[in-house]
Specification:
Elements (H helix, E strand, L loop, with lengths): L7 E9 L2 H11 L2 E6 L2 E5 L5 E6 L14 E9 L2 H11 L6 E2 L5 E4 L5 E6 L29 E9 L2 H12 L2 E6 L3 E5 L7 E5 L4 E8 L3 H13 L4 E7 L6 E6 L5 E6 L13 E3 L3 H4 L13
Parallel strand pairs: 1-4, 5-8, 9-12, 10-17, 13-16
Antiparallel strand pairs: 1-5, 2-3, 3-4, 6-7, 7-8, 9-13, 10-11, 11-12, 14-15, 15-16
């Protein structure tokens, strides 16, 4: 029987060393603040995907997979309570599964990362159309970026094959592309990838990626952040694998964070042929600056 697949990222939780700095960054990054207090804060995209910010020493957080500010939990959305039950039955065959708060189903993946599942609370916003967006009208300009969607999360793991097999065989993720000896792109929605696993001796977060409407919004967001002292790391450019425009920033909540726009959309799985790519600079970016040394693995 084909396993039940999630439909995308519903939420992530960061455990951070500096709550104040992390909260200021996420607000200036463009996320909407839902709540903020002594214990942390919660932000969301326009479609309702949540980013929870908590202190790294919060005893209620799942264990960290690395010794720095990082993502502690990824929550994947599903369509129905029946899907939760099916996923629970599948995962409980070989690992602990338990009921968390707010109806979540909780477990861990082979890397040790806390993963949870919930009936999706997002109100999906379709990806922007590439058709002409204005006729007899002036262009819209932005004051700052306003991310509407969390597309993917990227982790390093020394167990890349085992972890990729877990997500595909047990949770129904599909293979989009691979980079020989480097990593695996997996999806559970129409996004080219929702999870990218990088083959590395260490385990930990690489980046979390948020969708913007177009290149103008990427550059407006970049300038807004840079003027407030946040450090851009890589971009602008366009990836070859996934085809998306990108700009990366150092993220005080953990590792890096990405603005992106115009990613490959896969609506017909049978029409998409996964490809194996060589790990060359030309296959990481069609144009843009070379990968900075600090991001090279």
């Amino acid at each position: 029987m084909k396993p039940v697949s999630p439909i995308g990222i519903d939420a992530v939780t960061y455990g951070v060393q500096d709550l104040g700095m992390g909260a200021r960054f996420l607000q200036e990054f463009g996320l909407r603040e839902l709540e903020r207090g002594h214990g942390g804060a919660t932000y969301c995209t326009a479609e309702g995907a949540a980013v929870h910010l908590r202190s790294a020493d919060d005893s209620t957080l799942p264990p960290a997979i690395e010794a720095r500010s990082t993502i502690r939990e990824v929550v994947w959305g599903v369509i129905s309570k029946t899907d939760l039950d099916t996923i629970g039955a599948e995962l409980s065959k070989d690992r602990e599964v338990w009921n968390g708060s707010d109806g979540k189903l909780c477990s861990v993946d082979p890397t040790g990362l806390a993963i949870s599942f919930q009936v999706s609370q997002r109100k999906e916003i379709p990806a922007p159309s590439l058709k002409p967006r204005r006729v007899d009208a002036r262009a819209k300009f932005y004051d700052r970026a306003e991310p509407d969607h969390i597309a993917h999360v990227v982790f390093c793991t020394p167990k890349v094959e085992e972890t990729a097999e877990f997500y595909m065989r047990r949770l129904g993720f599909l293979l989009s592309d691979t980079i020989t000896g480097f990593g695996v792109f997996l999806r559970c929605s129409s996004d080219h990838h929702n999870l990218f696993l990088i083959n590395h001796t260490r385990k930990g977060l690489n980046h979390l990626s948020f969708r913007l409407r177009d290149f103008d919004e990427i550059m407006t967001g970049k300038e807004f952040l840079e003027k407030r002292g946040w450090r851009p790391v890589w971009g602008p450019g366009r990836h070859v694998i996934g085809s998306n425009l990108f700009y990366y920033f150092a993220n005080p909540c953990g590792a890096y964070i990405e603005y992106y726009a115009d990613m490959d959309c896969i609506m017909s799985p049978e029409a998409w042929i996964a490809r194996e790519w060589a790990p060359t600079p030309e296959n990481f970016a069609a144009w843009g600056p070379p990968i900075p040394e600090e991001m090279q693995l």
